[in-house]
Each structure stands twice: as C-alpha cells, then as structure tokens.
C-alpha cells in the first residue's frame, strides 16, 4: 500500500516535497515516455557515500511513497525515504546545464556535481 509523504505532519519537517519546476519537467518528460512516474532512490556509493538515482516507472511498488504536485508523481522506495526526509526535489536550468537537484537537509557533505552525499 502506498503512503502519501505529504500526509506527514508539517511541523516535523520530514515531508519530501516537489518544486513547481520539477513537477512541470516531470510532466513534460512523461509525455514522451512510456512511463508514468519518476522514481528517486538513494543507493550506497558515489564519491560522498550515497548517490541519488533517477529512473522511470510504470507501476507503483508495494512499499513506495508517492509525492505528487500539479499532476506529476514521484515514487520513493521506503528505504530511501529515511535519507530524503525534509528534502525538496527540484529541477534547475542553469548556464552549465539542466538537471533534477535534491535539496537534502540531512546531507552533511556533497560532491561537486550534487549526485552524491554523506550523512
């Protein structure tokens, strides 16, 4: 059964949120993909200890948490949720490139490219 992260009490600061720009980009990507959802996971590895992994999904897993905004849905597995509590999933389009970024208050260090972090 899926759990809604946005149902977590706001005062705990544990909700995982999705920025407006990330929601818009996810919706745009899904129009050209056969997938219905963006998956965000945390795996061991990377230059700082843990890495973010982004992928496409067609089905919601039994232990997945759904984060929804403006018609876009992100899935996070239950193990990754603990690493992402309080984070915002964002999409930035900068001079050096466009990408999804995770603003993670649990990370005490991150690599220069922003795809790996340590707690």
Descriptive notes:
This protein has 119 residues and is of the alpha/beta class. The protein contains two helices and ten strands. It has helices at residues 20-31, 78-84; strands spanning 3-4, 17-18, 37-44, 50-57, 64-69, 72-77, 88-94, 97-103, 109-110, 116-118. The strands form two sheets. Strands 1-5-6-3-4-10-9 form a seven-stranded mixed sheet. It is globular, with a radius of gyration of 14 Å. The N and C termini lie far apart (28 Å). The relative contact order is 0.25. Residues 1-12 have low confidence and may be disordered.
What proportion of the residues form beta strands (DSSP E)?
Answer: 35-45%
Structural class: alpha/beta
Rg of Cα set: 14 Å
Compressed to H and E, one letter per element, the order equals EEHEEEEHEEEE
The percentage helix is: 10-25%
Largest β-sheet summary: 7 strands, mixed
Shape: globular
Strand tally is 10
Mean pLDDT: 81
Write out key terms for the chains shown:
119 residues; alpha/beta; seven-stranded mixed beta sheet
Quick summary:
The protein is α/β, with parallel strands linked by helices and 119 residues long.
Write the layout of secondary structure elements.
Blueprint: E1 3-4, E2 17-18, H1 20-31, E3 37-44, E4 50-57, E5 64-69, E6 72-77, H2 78-84, E7 88-94, E8 97-103, E9 109-110, E10 116-118
Parallel strand pairs: 1-5, 2-7, 3-6
Antiparallel strand pairs: 3-4, 4-10, 5-6, 7-8, 9-10
